[in-house]
Fold these 2 entries.
Entry 1:
Amino acid sequence: MAALETRQDGRIGRILLNRPDALNALDLPMIREMSQVLVWWRDKPRVNAVVIEGAGERAFCAGGDIRALYELARSGDAESIETFFREEYVLNRAIAEFPKPYVALINGVCMGGGMGVSIHGTFRIATEHAALAMPETAIGLFPDVGGSYFLPRLPGALGMYLALTGTRLNGPDAAHAGFATHFVPRRRLAALSAGLAQDGAAVLAGYAEQLPDFSLARHRTSIDRCFSASSVPEILHRLEAERSDWARETTAALRARSPSSLCWSFELIRRGEDSMLGQCLARELALTREVTRHQDLMEGIRAMVIDKDRNPSWRPPRIEDVDPAAIQAMFPAS
Ligand code: QUE
């Protein structure tokens, strides 16, 4: 079976991300095929909407093909790395500009590249089994696929918090935060999917469930107070001043992430506040060139994805030792 399956079903075009053993992570052939089918369906009158899903019970899409990135970086193939990111970001933009309803059914892990093929669409339907996150600071990357566009547009400082900590949100929480547009229980997802093919996106409202309370609601003022600070060290100072269990846990989460990655991600998201999606993606592509030269990316992928020891040794190891001028130099004139 192909890693990407596309077909017409009633009034919709269906995309199935079908690499369940790799949590449906996106490789370059999948990205290319998706881009092609969207061009085809864009102008096809009988296709009124697009519905994208992930195969299997565990994942919508865990991200980009990080293992392939690791191998390319190891063999020094910077050109192929650049091609992968460029084509992935072009696809993200094509989804944002797709003129028909584009609906992602998210019933499992949806991280990084998975967010990129869902959040730019019209609707994101998340179940109680969904786990949405931008976890890239754990591997020494940064929230890409337009993260520097959509994260600063979340309420308050929530986007900076989610970007730096990589916190995972379940379906209802994702809908509260703005990652998802609807919460639909898993047991109703098959009926919704069939309904979309028969009657189009108008059926959505009939399936959405009322949201339970946002589990981050009681931390929202602290999140806004701390994560609106003007630098990563200042965020840590403000967390220390909170003197709460939540603030201590958040500090520990940040201390486990790549210090350099926290700093370039912070700067990227700040710059994204005032930029259009296309500018954000161009800035992200330029930043991939800088970051793939940094040792933390290889070390992070090794520790989190390849060896899974979850014990990376970052260089420099402390946030306080990251040179702010070196971070600024990674953002030439943008
Ligand atoms: C942070 C990430 C990713 C991650 C783990 C992190 C990421 C990603 C994958 C991943 C997972 C399973 C696969 C695969 C890649 O893991 O972006 O190929 O089979 O794609 O802690 O950002």
Entry 2:
Amino acid sequence: MAKKIAVLVSGGGTNLQALIDAQGSVLNSGKITLVVANNANAYALERAKKAGIDTAVVLKKECGSQEAFETKLMEILDGNGIDIIILAGFMTILTERFTSHYPKRILNVHPSLIPAFCGAGYYGLRVHEEALKYGVKVTGATVHFVNEIPDGGEIIAQKAVYIEDGDTPEILQRRVMEQAEWILLPQAAEKVCADLGHL
Ligand code: GAR
């Protein structure tokens, strides 16, 4: 039976869209049954609703503390029988209390070749700004398991993307998404769900 996937989002949700679009082709061993946002205005919520996927919003501010925020997330995820959690542009760090509850069951997509340009403070456009500032000629994306170390869990898949003359952080972000993230994330999700099915 297909594994139940929850996708956690904060913003535009293009990676969520890639996962939705991959269902029935690349992604067969898992099914997205829930999308959770930590931002009520996340466009990703619209994408989920259009695809007929249940949504939930959990605001850290309303929970009052990191611990209460994570407890609420766990209640929702466990209450929905979720097998695999995918962080797709989820812009908040999760502590060991949360990550150790789902060993090898949380995936994250990061827009660089880890261990370059990763860890606390490296997220979204900032990652591409730093890659351009450093002057690397190759960057890319990484999908990895999530543990208590930010961007420090076991790597599942990586794909390189060349930097080109005239790149701005925005242009590079788009190329990394098109050439790496949107391809890699559904493939990695399929692999993890399929492997889980064989346990
Ligand atoms: C993506 O580039 C994702 O890799 C990055 O944020 C963007 C979200 O875009 N995530 C991180 O930087 C996490 N450290 P999306 O909402 O359109 O998928």
